[in-house]
Amino acid sequence: MKTFNYLMAGGLFFICLAFQSCLDDDDSCVDKSYPNALVTVKQDNDKSLFLQLDDKTKLFPVNMKSSPFGNKEVRALVNFDEAIGSKDQYSRNVYVNWIDSIRTKKMVPDLGSQNDAIYGNDPVEIVNDWVTIVEDGYLTLRFRTVWGGDRTKIHYVNLLAGQNPNDPYEIEFRQNASGDVYGAMVDALVAFKLDKLPDTKGKTVKLKLKWKSFTGDKTAEFDYCSGVLLPTKSTPSYVKNVMNIK
User: Which of helix, strand or coil describes residue 117?
Assistant: First the structure.
């Protein structure tokens, strides 16, 4: 087992080569250089390592005794093979071929008129992809932005808790490119823990994401439920001005 390191710049997980959209149970994804799952790296009550595959399925890596990321709970791309044995219908033993963490962050407060100065307002595109998803209490995003390759320029991305009094589940994605606004379009991955949002008390609500794109303001909606395990993954439903997303 080994970890893969994709191109890192400014603390972001940049994707040098577009990876194929492998489904979690798709046996056709035989090329081990590609991820076949998106997981949360966690510890059980007895401190044993497991990978949360979706909102109810745990993967137990038979060839890993501890997390390569220390005690941090992070989202990660992984390539694994099935291993013999399982504990119950919601768990599977796996052999991890490789695993690499995604930049995993907490939400930040909405600062109103100070948002542009603190968090920036540089445009991005949210990519409608299998890794753009809400599951296991996280919003994971594949986004596209301009990057000039200057390692001294750090791109900061944040997820803001909204201030809409009529919708506490309205959030906003922000980027501060630190002036690095010329160059090629590059994709990156980032994940945000959603524990700052109000408890949905077992109900499924619409999580509304806003962002500034290169062609204007856009929004997307995701199904979100906190405090309980959902039977399936929550995939995005794009609702406004998103026809240019690829």
Answer: helix
**What CATH number corresponds to the domain at position 188?**
2.60.40.2370
pLDDT digits (tens, 9 = 90+) for 60-104: 999 999 999 999 999 999 999 999 887 677 789 999 999 999 999
Choose among 80, 15, 12: nearest CA to 50.
Answer: 80
pLDDT, tens digit, for every residue of 206-243? Answer: 999 999 999 999 999 999 998 644 433 444 443 333 32
- Strand pairing of 170-176 and 156-161? antiparallel
Same domain, 56 and 89: yes
Same domain, 54 and 142: no
> CA-CA distance, 196 to 133, in Å (whole number)?
18
Could you tell me how many residues make up the chain? 246
Q: Pick from 146, 153, 151, 157: which is nearest to 118 by CA?
A: 157
What CA–CA distance (Å, rounded) separates 229 from 50?
16
> Residue 209: which of 221, 196, 200 has the closest Cα?
221
pTM for this predicted structure = 0.83
What CATH number is associated with residue 63?
Answer: 2.40.50.500
H or E element that contains 138: strand 138-147
> Do residues 85 and 143 share a domain?
no
